[in-house]
Design a protein that fits this description.
Length: 177
C-alpha cells in the first residue's frame, strides 16, 4: 500500500496540477512596431507569469509587465512610450485569463489585457516548444492596435516622425512547475 501511494505521489508531482512560475533568466519579452522612419523594438526587463497548470488547462494565469521596464535604448522614445501607456498612473500592464486550453503543442484561449487603465478581451495562442517534467517553453506573438486601448500612437520631431498603430508583443517564456 505504501509503495502504491509513493508511486501515485511521484506521478501526480510530474503530471498533475501545479503552480507555475516564470524562469526570468531564460525568458524574453519584447514589443515591436513601425514608424514613418524605421521599425523599432523595446525589450521588457521586468515581467512575471504565474498560474496553475494541469494536463489540459492553464488556470488563473496572470502575466504582469512593469511598464517602465520597457527599454528601446533611446531615452526620448522610452519616455514617449511611458507617457502613451500612462505608466505613472498605471505602472503595470496585465494579462489575465481564468482558463486557457492545452491541446497538443498549443495553449489558447481568451483573456483580458489591461494597458493604461483600459481593458480588452484578446485571444492568446502560444506554441509549446518544449515540455519536460518540470519546465515548459512557450513562444507566441500578440498583435495589437494602440488605438484599441485609447492610446494615440506617439509622434516626434514636431509630428514628422509617426509611430504606426499596430504593435506586436513577442514572447519566449520558460515556466517551471
Amino acid at each position: 500500500m505504501m509503495k502504491y501511494l509513493f508511486i501515485m505521489a511521484v506521478l501526480f508531482g510530474f503530471f498533475g496540477a501545479g503552480q507555475i512560475k516564470l524562469n526570468a533568466e531564460k525568458s524574453t519579452l519584447n514589443i515591436t512596431g513601425t514608424s514613418s522612419l524605421h521599425d523599432w523594438e523595446m525589450t521588457v526587463d521586468e515581467f512575471d507569469v504565474t498560474g496553475v497548470i494541469t494536463e489540459t488547462q492553464v488556470q488563473n494565469l496572470k502575466a504582469t509587465i512593469k511598464a517602465k521596464s520597457m527599454k528601446s535604448g533611446k531615452s526620448i522614445m522610452d519616455g514617449k512610450a511611458y507617457d502613451a501607456v500612462q505608466a505613472d498612473d498605471f505602472p503595470e500592464i496585465i494579462f489575465s485569463a481564468n482558463t486557457l486550453e492545452i491541446k497538443g503543442n498549443s495553449i489558447s484561449g481568451k483573456g483580458t489585457l489591461e494597458i493604461g487603465g483600459k481593458s480588452l478581451l484578446i485571444n492568446l495562442d502560444s506554441k509549446i516548444v518544449k515540455q519536460g517534467t518540470s519546465e515548459m517553453q512557450l513562444q507566441g506573438k500578440v498583435p495589437l492596435k494602440m488605438t484599441d486601448f485609447d492610446i494615440t500612437p506617439p509622434t516626434a520631431m514636431f509630428g514628422t516622425l509617426k509611430t504606426g498603430d499596430e504593435v506586436v508583443i513577442n514572447y519566449d517564456i520558460f515556466l517551471t512547475k
